[in-house]
Each structure stands twice: as structure tokens, then as C-alpha cells.
């Protein structure tokens, strides 16, 4: 049984994916290759954070244990998080961030589109808003993938290395919804082709994020994200 098999854990998986992506994207403020991209990445991070707040707030209500969105974000250890490993991986190279945007946001868009038509009216409303935002995120990642992949020799090499590095982690995204893999490939593969990038061969497929088994990268990310809240619990601003 995977972590996303219950209503509460499914909401955690959705919310944690968005929250961890928001934190990673926020780390690029003032580090992007151009000023316009600083603004674009900050906006995408805010979209992800907005979705995370709604999803984690709903998760807390479903759990019924008195934990709100802040408690779920700031007072869990890495073992309590249910995000996919792909979201937490370090992205020190801009090419890695671009590949992550393309891969992860393409998955989010498909998943939100499905949830927007689901029986849970509250989750459907959250997903309907998020799917519109995800369409922009996918387009932004796709444009940069083509720009770098079909650019200079160096940008092509770094973009190919990023795609090769992240590809194995994409398999975990479809553990609970394998039928989304085919439409995901239909989105991603044409972008890689236009970018003159090779689609990696499927093989090694790390997993565990949905069950709370993470890379050390998540511990470092959470330490940075949670330090203020833990240092001043219950503080009001």
C-alpha cells in the first residue's frame, strides 16, 4: 500500500509536492540568468505555494487531529512528508531546474485535470484552479528546455545531463496513477525532440517518497524552511 492510498495521505502527497516545489523555486530568487526569469520563477513558486496551502489546509481538516496548514508544513520531519523524490532533488544548475519544471509540472497538470472532474467537490475546486496555473508552468519549462537544448554546445550538454539525471525519478510519479504515464510522455517527448535532446532509456527507477523515505536533500530543505517557525512556535506577526 502506497502513501497516497488514503484520502488524507493523498492530500498530503498533493500538498507536499506543491510545497517542496515552491521551496525549491523560491531558492532561485535573484539567481536566475535574467531579471525577467527571477520574476517568472517567483510567480510559479507562489502558484505552487497557494496550491500547497489549500491542499494542506484541507488535509488537516480531513485528518481531524487539530493540525492546520502551518503545523503540517513546519512541524513534520522528512519521514512525515509524502512528496515525490523528484520535487526535492537539488537544482543547483539552472538546466536541472528547467528539466524539473517540464517533468514535474507536466505531471501536476494531468493529475489536477483528473481531480478537477472528481467527486470531491472541494478538491475539484482546488484542482480546477491549479490546472490553469500548471499549464503556464509546463509551457515555461518547455520553452526553456528548447532554448537550452537547441542552443549552444554547452547549454545543450548541460540540458541533456539534467534530463538524464532526473529521468529515473519520473517513474515514481505514476505509481498510483500509471495510466497518466502515456499522456505525460505525449507532452514531454515532443519537447525533448524539438530541443534536440535524447529521451533517456527507462531503467533504474528510485522510489520511496510517497512512503516517507526520502533523500538527504529533503532534510536540508526542511531545515531551512522550518527554522523560523520552530525557533518561535506560536509567534504572531
Output the CATH homologous superfamily.
Ferritin, core subunit, four-helix bundle
The number of E-state strands comes to 0
Q: How many strands, which pairing sense, and closed or not: the largest β-sheet?
A: none
Termini gap? 41 Å
Shape: globular
Quaternary structure type:
single chain
Q: Would you state the CATH class?
A: Mainly Alpha
- Tell me the β content: under 5%
Order of helices and strands: HHHHHHHHH
Number of helices: 9
How many structural domains are formed by the residues? 1
Low-confidence stretches: 1-5
The residue-averaged pLDDT reads 95
Structural class per helix/strand content?
mainly alpha
CATH structural fold name? Ferritin
C-alpha Rg (nearest Å): 17 Å
Tell me the helix content.
55-70%
- Specify the CATH architecture: Up-down Bundle
